[in-house]
């Protein structure tokens, strides 16, 4: 297999496969912990071509690490590409993610983790097992042992608290915690947890819609939010969600008051 076809087969830069089955709130927590493992393992990996953090780290057959896009660009410039570091013929380029599953030994040599990183990874590993065994409080305690300079676990802790106590107090705490997150993935995770446990929180929907990049997903969220706004009698909000999702307003009119509200909304839609 040629180096370029190895990259192509790995689906470089492609989005994960879409499934109809939506993950549960707990499954989202598990996925978030797994992502945190990668975050810790990859945070210090820099590409020898770009000299920046490798966004999509890949490993060559000569065990050198580069950013996927950078090495692909490098290989496209030559018929017989060689490693920019050691001049070995490039035959296979493997995404680090795949190596993780198939070759732990090779991976640990490549990563060269320091002590706090290893300690944090061990906490993540233990908490993952605890979550999967339904020991949520224990998992939270374990996560809180992670080294803060290596990983901010606040979003994970907030998300896990919902699993055994989706109280309104925890919803408020989560909404406040989301605003403090620097990483958009952490904010998305928290809002997903809020709407999974408190679907009435249209403000969480609004934030999540803003943060969501995939247009299909964005539209699906707007439609869900519009239905919830209708159920809550918030016609203006329903209209704005539907308008943004480019779907005409379909309102079931029952009472006189609702008719008046719906008539105004329909008029507004025609005027827009
Ligand atoms: Zn090399």
Notes on the structure:
The structure is a single chain. The protein is mainly α and about 270 residues long. It has a domain at about 1-10 and about 40-110: Herpes Virus-1, CATH 3.30.40. The N and C termini lie far apart (about 55 Å). It contains 14 helices and 3 strands. The structure holds zinc ion. Zinc ion binds near residues 60, 62, 85 and 86.
Oligomer type: single chain
Mean pLDDT: 84
Query: Helices and strands: which structural class?
Result: mainly alpha
Rg estimate, integer Å = 23 Å
In terms of DSSP E residues, the strand content is under 5%
Distance between the termini: 56 Å
| Bound compounds | zinc ion
Record the strand order, biggest sheet.
2-1-3
Q: Strand-and-helix sequence, N→C? A: HHEEHEHHHHHHHHHHH
| CATH homologous superfamily annotation of the domain at 1-9 and 39-112 | Zinc/RING finger domain, C3HC4 (zinc finger)
CATH topology of the domain at 1-9 and 39-112: Herpes Virus-1
Per CATH, which architecture of the domain at 1-9 and 39-112? Answer: 2-Layer Sandwich
The number of E-state strands comes to: 3
């Amino acid at each position: 297999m040629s180096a370029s076809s190895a990259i192509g087969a790995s689906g470089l830069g492609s989005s994960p496969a879409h499934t109809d089955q939506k993950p549960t709130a707990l499954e989202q927590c598990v996925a978030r912990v797994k992502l945190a493992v990668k975050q810790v393992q990859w945070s210090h990996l820099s590409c020898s071509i770009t000299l920046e953090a490798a966004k999509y780290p890949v490993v060559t057959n000569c065990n050198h690490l580069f950013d996927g896009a950078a090495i692909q660009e490098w290989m496209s410039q030559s018929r017989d590409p060689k490693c920019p570091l050691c001049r070995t013929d490039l035959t296979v380029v493997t995404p680090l993610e795949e190596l993780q599953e198939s070759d732990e030994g090779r991976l640990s040599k490549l990563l060269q983790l320091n002590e706090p990183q290893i300690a944090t990874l061990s906490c993540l590993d233990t908490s993952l097992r605890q979550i999967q065994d339904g020991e949520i409080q224990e998992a939270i305690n374990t996560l809180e042992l992670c080294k803060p300079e290596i990983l901010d676990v606040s979003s994970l802790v907030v998300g896990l608290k919902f699993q055994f106590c989706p109280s309104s107090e925890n919803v408020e705490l989560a909404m406040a915690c989301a605003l403090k997150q620097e990483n958009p993935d952490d904010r998305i995770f928290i809002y997903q947890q809020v709407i999974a446990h408190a679907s009435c929180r249209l403000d969480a929907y609004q934030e999540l819609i803003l943060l969501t990049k995939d247009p299909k997903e964005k539209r699906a969220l707007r439609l869900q939010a519009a239905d919830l706004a209708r159920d809550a009698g918030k016609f203006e909000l329903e209209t704005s969600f539907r308008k943004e999702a480019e779907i005409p307003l379909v309102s079931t009119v029952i009472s006189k008051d609702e008719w008046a509200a719906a008539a105004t909304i329909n008029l507004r839609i025609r005027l827009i």
